Structure formats: C-alpha cells, structure tokens
Amino acid sequence: MNTIPLIVDLDGTLIHTDMLHESMISAFREKPLVNTLKMPHWLSRGKAFLKQRLAQSSSFNAASLPYNKGFLSWLKQQHAQGRKLILCTASDYVIASAIAAYLNIFDEVMASDGSTNLAHKHKAEALTRRFGLHGFDYAGNSRADLPVWSQARHAIFVNTPTKIIKKASATCKTEKVFSFPSIETSSWQHTLRTHQWLKNILLFIPLLAAHKMTDLHAWSALFFAFISFSLCASAVYIANDLLDLDNDRQHPRKHKRPFASGKVPIWLGFILSPCLLLASIAFGTIAGTTFIICLVAYFILTCAYSLRLKRLVIVDCLTLAILYTLRIIAGAAAVEITLSFWLLAFSIFLFLSLAFVKRYAELWSQKLMHQEKLHGRGYHTTDAPLIQIFGISAAYVSVLVLALYINSDAVRFLYRTPDVIWGVVPLLLFWTNWMWLRAHRGEMHDDPLVFAVKDKASLLTGFLFVLVLVLGTVRWS
Question: Nearest Cα to 136, choosing from 144, 148, 145?
C-alpha cells in the first residue's frame, strides 16, 4: 500500500471544465442582471471572495459534470488499495466538498475559503506545511501547478501540455501521464453548429418566390446576408450551450455537445461568441440597414429565448416559428422585396408544426428514460399527446394556406401554368404527415432539420416540390 498521500486537482484535471466558469454561468442564469452587476464588486475584494459568492449564488449537479473517466477510474483503484486521496483545488470549498461527497473517494478536501485563493504558490505552501517537502504526490494539469510539482515527490500529469511536463519533470519524478485528445475538427463544427447554417437558406426564399433568380446584385446581397446570419446564429448557439450546460448534460444526446462534455473549454466560448457577433454585424452592413434591423431583432429574440422563453410552454414553440420566419423577412429586406401575406402565414404555421415536432421528439426520449419532465423546459412527458395535436393542426393549416395561395391571382401572374402548382399540395401533405408519423414512432431526431437532410423520403419530397414549381413556370399547350 502506498502511504504517500495523493493530492488531486479539480479544474481541468478531475473534471474537463473549470468550476469558476461554471459558477459564473450558473449565477448569470439564475439572476442575469443582479449577479452581473455584483461580480465586479466581488472581484474587487479578491478572487477567493468572488468564487465564494458565485458558489453561493449558483447551483450545479455534481453527478452530471464531465469527469475525466480514465483518471477517475485510476483514482478509484488507488482508493480501493487504501491510499489517502485529498481533493485540493482553487475552487470554492462549497463546490469542492459537494463533488467529493458525490464521488466518495476522497479522505479530505482543501479548497479556497473566501479569503485565500488556493492556487499557484498558495497551494504549494499549504501542502508543504501540511505534508512537508516531497511528502506528497500531486496530480495536476496546467502551468499554475508548476510550484506544487516542485514541492511534490511524484507528479501525475493529466491533460498536461508537453512543454509543462518537461518543466515539471526537471524538479519532480513522473509517476503517471493521462492524456486527453486535442480539440478535433468535428468538435469545432459542433461548437459553431455549422449544420444549422442550412436553416439560413430561408433567406433566399423571397428571391425565389419573386422569380428574380437572374438578379446578380440580389444574389450578392444575399450571400453576405447568409454569412452574417450564420455567424450570428453560431454566436447565439454558443451562448445558448453555455447557459444550458446542466440541462444538456442530463439529455441523452446533448450531453455529447462540446461544452457539456468538456471537449471545448468554456472560456473559449466566452471569447468566440462576441467575436462571431461582431463579424456578423460587419457582414450584415453590406446587406443594408433594413437587414441589420432584422438581424438585431433575430439576435434579441434568440437571446430572450435562451434566457427565458424556452422555459415557457407553447411560447417556446411560437418563438421558434417566429425565428424561422424572421430569416425569410431578413432575406426580403436584403433584396428589397415586399413579402406577401401568403408566404408569411404559410411559414409561421409550417415552422410552428416543426417546432412542436422538436418538442414532441424530446418528450418521447425523456419518456423512454422514465423522466416526468423535460429538463430546462416547462413540459411534462404526459403533455406529448397534446403537443402532437397542436403540431398536426398547425401542419394542416400550413397546407390550407398554401392551397389558398395557389388559387390567388399572384400565382396566375408568376406562373405560366398555375394549374400544375397544385401538385405541391399533396407533396406537402405527405411530408408533414410523414414527419409526424416518424415522430409518433419515436424515430424522429430531436432536431427535425437534421432528420430531414438525412431522410430519403424528405429529400425526395423536396426535390419533387421544386420540380413541380419549375414545371409551373413552363407554358404547356
């Protein structure tokens, strides 16, 4: 049995995240305005005091944190062999003790206490006073741990850069190294949600609906509008993922998202989101002032959705439908086209149906896990049948609006053979029913867009829909 105590760091070592960043997000989510105004005052009294206040003003679920599974498994082996384990961290004691209580492998907890920030040399001095020079082994991960390793007997490197390992090895023997893969390209794609940029194709709908496909200036404006909206959407998705960390970690699929899983550090999200937003505005100015107004409206409404509206039943789905429709309005603003009542009404009802599909699929997955509520939302799993009725009703209304539009004078003006356009009605009826059928069977992805772009029936229906519209522009004898 190893009688030398093993000291274990928390942030970036035992867990793939930083509890200071987690606490800031949680405190902001609980009381956005109040806690944001208080943070500068707390920081002025020292970092330890800031951590203490944040810990008191926030909440977290120790069971859902992204633990370093390989390292934790080794710690459990050491604990089973009778080795003394001590969790020593710069995080506040309230947080550290809650994590230690959950894991139940640590004999003691040493942490910041509101007056002393237990990091860097302060941690090294505290451990040396307690165990003596070289009287302990230390598991850490960063440059801040170099003073501690210089006082330790052996070093355990966890997710540590090679340069830091070389520096620490000059003053301390290496016992074990645990590596963690670097950020992969796929992680960046999921962070930015590049697949969600497909939704911004809706910006081009007004141009296509007005039959102005040969207007090169309009295509140029829409190109910059597309980039602007995509960057803005990524900025908002990042902010939403940061605010929704705890709920994502309890979701059967979303727990794999980069921030929730710890594959991408939270501090990068703090930097990326505002930078993407500024770039979005820069590209948006090229598309015109009216487009910028639509972009700002989209951003404000999305932020409201992330902070509050997504927790309100029905309101959340209505908001999603409006956000989809705002893309169409923004596209019309970029090319200075007046939208028709028919297009706006059709889009609102169709996207409302898809929003309900999304919620229904999420409720279905929660029901399979025997959960009574949808985490971070106001829905109960027993609401699923009613949500299904709402969604199917909205889908049929969208088909009705489309049918009424086809019978209007606008269609006779835009299409040479308007009777052919009636072919899109049964296609839309099939597709909306198909989406709800798959959702009812529990085969729907909780993002209908992801499902549609991978589903052969949806792709074929979309192709036939466009084909019918093209055939309607040809005059048939």
Answer: 148
